[in-house]
# Entry
Amino acid sequence: MTKSNIESLIFKKKSKDILIEETLSSLSALLADVFTGDDVNELKTEFPEDLKLVDIGIELLHVAMYLESKEFETPAIEVSIKLIIDKQDYELGTYSLIFDENFEQIDEVLNLD
# Structure
């Protein structure tokens, strides 16, 4: 089965691009809160001291589907974005949203290196 056939079966309700857009939107809101908002999640101290929001670049890391996983009770799709410090091309960490088979968000993960 080809990649396009698999994608057409999996992404019937929401396209892969929509899931990527939702993840980028969620990441943008999180970073805006950390750097210019109330830092509700108290994450500012996890980032390098002098880092500014404009210094952070992003790259799509992967879109993965888990049919069986110890972490999720149902099949899940993970959209993962790599955070980098643009000027230094240094990987800062990753941000992921996890969706269930109905494309509802079931988890949010921020891993900073």
The chain is about 25% helix and 35% strand. The first strand starts at residue 56 and ends at 66. Strands lie at 56-66, 76-85, 90-100, 105-112.
